[in-house]
Amino acid sequence: MIKVILEDAAGNEISMLRLEHGRTLLNRDPKKFSLLSRLSAASYDVFASTDMNELYKELTTLGNDSLEPNEKLELHNVLKLVEACRNNYGSTLTFTPFE
């Protein structure tokens, strides 16, 4: 499981998702997925609102792969958080395997 946490510029949690199939985001080719390839099953990975255009593009590309319906739904929900982060300057999106 991977949690995705949207926080405002002050570090307050705005929204959080638990991805049961989040491992589909891991171990991506760094040439094709420069941001997603940074995700780790052993650490926090934090992206700034300024990273959201690239992250959105990579997640959309990932969505074109053959994913299970539940994986596609989770990806769709992550894209919503990416859009919210992109529209909230100074916010961050954190991916973590930790509770």
Can you offer a commentary on this structure?
By secondary structure, this protein is α+β, with helices and mostly antiparallel strands. It is built from two helices and four strands, in the order E-E-E-H-H-E. It has helices spanning 52-63, 69-86; strands at 2-7, 13-19, 45-48, 92-96. It has a four-stranded antiparallel β-sheet with strand order 2-1-4-3, with helices on one face. Strand 1 (2-7) and strand 2 form a beta hairpin. The model has no long low-confidence stretch (mean pLDDT 91).
> Which term fits the overall shape?
globular
Number of strands: 4
Q: Kindly state the percentage of residues in helix.
A: 25-40%
Question: Biggest sheet: strands, sense, closure?
Answer: 4 strands, antiparallel
Along the chain, the helix and strand elements come as EEEHHE
Alpha-beta classification:
alpha+beta
Number of H/I helices: 2
Between the first and last Cα atoms, what is the distance in angstroms? 9 Å
- Gyration radius (Cα, Å) is 12 Å
Low-pLDDT regions: none
Give the rounded overall mean pLDDT.
91
Strand ordering within the main sheet: 2-1-4-3
What oligomerization state is this entry in?
Answer: single chain
- Strand fraction band? 15-25%
